[in-house]
Amino acid sequence: MTREERRLALPDATRAALASVAMACALMALKGYAAFATGSVAMLGSLADTGLDLLASLVTLYGVRLAATPADHDHRFGHGKAEALAALFQVALITASAAGIAWRAINALGSEQSTTEAELGIGVSIAAIAATAILLWYQRRVIRRTGSVAIMADNVHYQSDILLNGSVIVALVLDQYFGWHKADPVFGIVIALWLAWGAFKASSAAIDQLMDKEWPEAQRTAFLEVAARQPGLRGIHDFRTRRSGSHDFAQFHMEVARDLTVDKAHDIVEGVEHSLRRHFPKVEVLIHLDPEGHVDTDNPLVEEDVTPHWFGKRV
Question: What are phi and psi of 187, to 5 degrees?
Answer without folding.
Answer: -70, -30
